[in-house]
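HUMAN: Ready with one sample?

ASSISTANT:
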Amino acid sequence: QVQLVESGGGLVQAGGSLRLSCAASGTIFSINRMGWYRQAPGKQRELVASSITGGGSTRYADSVKGRFTISRDNAKNTVYLQMNSLKPEDTAVYYCNAEIVPRRDQANAAYTYWGQGTQVTVSS
């Protein structure tokens, strides 16, 4: 009953910018963590950025530090990924990921959910 809906992917030129968004909806009591992964053709899925709820802790892949910024709107159950100075090697399918506690009466039960993925293509 939980769904992650991504938007904002597309085709951009090298050096350009793009902002991805992901909104969680459905039966949600609390969200422990939200983040972004990506997978390029022929490569494994890798963590891009992650945000832990409450403490303001964020993590970034070394390859995107200084260029990408993850942010949250907790009231809207939404996570964003601002991508600047895009490079062709950033081309991948980007996936939203979240750890969510669906029910208050089972508050110790958390589950991991994935979005369907959104394509980001950076041309040279």
Notes: The longest strand covers residues 30-39. The radius of gyration is 15 Å. The chain has a mean pLDDT of 96. The CA atoms of residues 33 and 52 lie 5 Å apart.
